[in-house]
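Subject: Protein record for review, amino acid sequence with backbone structure tokens
Why sent: The fold of this protein is of interest and is recorded here as tokens.
Notation: Tokens come from a learned vocabulary of local backbone shapes, not from coordinates.
Attached in line: The record itself begins immediately under this heading.
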Amino acid sequence: MLRRLAALGLVSALAGIAAAQVAGATRTGATLTETGQLIPGWSAKQSILGRAVYDVSGERIGKALDLIVGTDRRVTFLIVEMGTFPSGSRHLVAVPASQLAVRGGRLLLPDADRQALALQPAFVHAPVTRTQSAIVEQAQQDADRARRTIARLERQLAHGEGGEARAGLERQILALRQAVQAVEEKVAEMDAADSDRWQAAEAQVGQAAARLRSAMRGVPA
């Protein structure tokens, strides 16, 4: 997750922070040797999430709870938990990530005021997002299983199945390929859909996956 956040532009989003830190290193393949490559940026887990956030006077505002990745693939907001209110509910607020700064090892929101933030409407996480969709996850698992089945059927063809048996295998392979392609197309449509249409597109992914599972039931194990 941390490498993903860095790749999505965490450094650019946190433009208010001074010099970028080094989040870690990875190994990249080379012809004869391996080369270490630094990944510059802030580790969300080690440097931001769970840490206290302060205003410019040093008063504790709350705790960094979450980071929001926008549709442009950049971190756009820092979600701050301001504590539990007398009602018993947690009060979360969304602050532009560009306002975050670091001074003396502390996370600061120089332009923020705790009392003003407390009066802001509470931030509420959406109940489900595209990347959390159980329907899409199931569809992808179904597609992976179908691809493995296709590979198995193709090996059977390569071993010399003939006559009606060969024709049956070819029909099954074609049906599975078409069903997998339909799932992939619906997932792509969902990814491209705007916020008003993506849940309808998600339902279409589920329908395509159901047809794929139906095709799989006709294939001998």
